[in-house]
Amino acid sequence: MSDKEPSQRQLRVGEQIRHALSRILARGELRDPALTNVPITVSEVRCTPDLKTATAYVLPLGGQNVDEVISALKRAGAFLRGQVAREVRLKYTPGLRFMADDSFDEANRIDTLLRRPEVVRDLRPGAANDPDEDDDDPARSAGDDHDPSTAFYHG
Q1: 111-133, pLDDT tens digit by residue?
Q2: Among positive and negative, which fits the CA dihedral 115, 117, 122, 127?
Q3: CA-derived radius of gyration, the chain
Q4: Which of 6, 98, 112, 116 is most buried by its number of CB atoms within 10 A?
Q5: Spatial contact of 98 and 56, defined as CB atoms under 8 Å apart
Q6: Three-state DSSP class for residue 39
C-alpha cells in the first residue's frame, strides 16, 4: 500500500462496504460449514484508489480458526460481492479480498508492554521528579540547594 492517505471517497465506500458485510454475515446466509454459527467481526475495509478492490479485515469471535474462516470467505467472495452490490449503490462494486485482522493482537502486545514494571514506574505521576532516579540536570547538581523562586531582584 502506498504512503498516501486514503481519499474521503475511499473511506466512505470502505465504511459502507464494512457495514454491508457485517449485516450480510450476521444474517448467516452463507452455507459454508466453516462460516455457520461463527460470529465474524469486520473491523475495517480499505479500498484501492480506483475503488476496484476492497480488502476486508475480519476476525472470528474469539480468534478461533482464523485461517479456516478466511479461506471460507474467499470461497464465498463472489456471493458476498453480489450481496454487497444489492446493498451499496455503486457504479462498480469492488472485488472483495479478505485478510485476518491483526490489530487486536497488536493492541494486546502494546497493552502487555505498558504493564511491564519498568514502564509502569516511568508512567507513574511524578516519576520525572523521582529522587531515586539519576539526575542529569546540571542546574540541580549536588550542593545546589538554591530556590529558583528567589532568584529575581526584589528591590
Answers
A1: 788 888 887 788 777 655 555 55
A2: positive
A3: 27
A4: 98
A5: yes
A6: coil
Query: What is the arithmetic mean of pLDDT over 45-68?
Result: 89
Edge-to-edge, what's the strand order for the sheet holding 95-100?
A: 40-47, 53-60, 95-100
CA angle 9, 85, 12 (to 5 degrees): 15
Separation CA 75–CA 77 (nearest Å): 6
Q: What pLDDT does residue 127 have?
A: 59
Virtual torsion, Cα 59, 65, 69, 70, nearest 10 deg = 70
Q: What whole-number distance in Å separates Cα of residue 67 and Cα of residue 72?
A: 9
**How many residues does the structure list for the chain?**
155
Nearest CA among 25, 113, 109 for reference residue 72: 25
Alpha-carbon gap, residue 124 to 35, rounded angstroms: 46
